[in-house]
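so my prof wants the structure for this chain in the tokens format not the other one, which i didnt know existed until like an hour ago. anyway here's the sequence
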Amino acid sequence: MNVPTIPTTWADQLEVFLGTLHTVPPATTTPSADPERAVYRSYFEDREGNVLGGQSDWIVAGKEKPAYTFRFLLHSRSSDRLHFMITGSGPDHEKKVGISRNGYLGLYQVSTVSDFIKIEPLEWSENAVLCRLRDHLGHAVKARHDSATDTPRFSYLNAQAGADTLFILQRVHN
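here's what i got, hopefully its the right format
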């Protein structure tokens, strides 16, 4: 069986870079496609301005906020995947992207995150890649919402359940 190999690209030449993520429909074929929804961290405060624990720092896809800037650190690679440790940026630089026991992606500061996120490149461009995100076991990251609507305000990213989705990872230049 012939397994396609990943060409050397800007992602593994840099080893560390900042980037944003957007979701696109599963039939997308190019990283220059129009993004469907931005990927950002949830953030909720009470009336006094205190962060609501348990509600904030989940990674979601929606249209209510601009894409969040993540820091990607190349961990390793296989013949068809790049493995990254992903963290927040700016004031969230100590938070790491991890997966809850129910499959939800979030930014964790207190819990130990030791598993990488796999990026399955589908098509490269100069500063972006059309890809699937996968957990360290290879499960595809999907968009999941709990409401009965077909057009939710946002969807949680989940590695266990949800609708198939692709991502555009866009490199952010400093």
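also thought this was worth mentioning. The CA atoms of residues 38 and 66 lie 6 Å apart.
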